[in-house]
UniProtKB/TrEMBL annotation:
Keywords: Transcription. Residues 18-117 form the NusG-like N-terminal domain. This is NusG-like N-terminal domain-containing protein. Coiled coil: none annotated. It comes from the Bacteria. One of its GO terms (biological process) is DNA-templated transcription elongation. InterPro entries: NGN-like_dom, NGN_dom_sf.
Length: 208
């Protein structure tokens, strides 16, 4: 991937930039994030620490801390909205090895910009707890967001990944789907209704 990020973004006001969500192959989040950074783009792969017990033959069990992706297979990418809407930057990102898709707005081919302030909130907040209610939340469930700039908004779960990270289609005040998409941790939502039919969700995949 050629250098294309900072050259296009130098001197730009933050109002012209947005954060987008890139889904990658399991275990390749760090590699894709480094590739995006090397290309001159701004990318972020949040991590969280987990503790596990390591047992080795002939030795006493010991605790070990391991860092894993906080948002599972998702990496956040900041880019100029104009370039994403024109499509050529989107195509460059999709052509990267290990990139599966860029999340798009529900019912659209337009890349979904994250709500303003959401990534900054995640940077300054602790990972959510994985509580006992996590297994109940699945695709099609209706939830309410409890924290962050989208607090109080309701959404329908479009996808649940291996780390119980949710991709939500936000609802309007009347309960209808909007184009807005949000990525959040399962511990940051309240389950309102089990398994409705998920709204139509379009994602940008690599060409077959």
């Amino acid at each position: 991937m050629k250098k294309l990020g900072r050259q296009a973004a130098i001197g730009l006001d933050d109002d012209l930039l947005s954060w987008y969500v890139v889904e990658v192959r399991n275990g390749r989040e760090g590699h894709v994030c480094r590739t995006l950074l090397a290309s001159g783009l701004t990318a972020w792969r949040p991590v969280r620490s987990i503790k596990q017990i390591v047992r080795e033959r002939g030795k006493a069990p010991r605790a070990q801390t391991r860092r894993v992706s906080r948002f599972g297979s998702y990496v956040f990418l900041q880019a100029e909205r104009r370039l994403m809407e024109e499509g050529w930057l989107l195509s460059e990102v999709l052509n990267l090895a290990d990139v599966l898709l860029v999340v798009r707005e529900a019912g659209s081919r337009k890349a979904a910009a994250m709500p303003r302030g959401l990534v900054e909130f995640y940077r300054n907040s602790q990972p959510a707890e994985r509580d006992a209610d996590c297994p109940k939340i699945s695709e099609g469930c209706k939830v309410r967001i409890l924290v962050g700039p989208a607090s109080g908004r309701e959404g329908i779960v479009a996808r649940v990944d291996r780390e119980r990270v949710l991709r939500l289609t936000l609802l309007d005040p009347e309960g209808g789907p909007t184009p807005a998409t949000i990525i959040c941790e399962v511990g940051h939502v309240d389950l309102l209704e089990l398994c409705r039919r998920p709204p139509t969700q379009t994602t940008s995949h690599k060409a077959a």
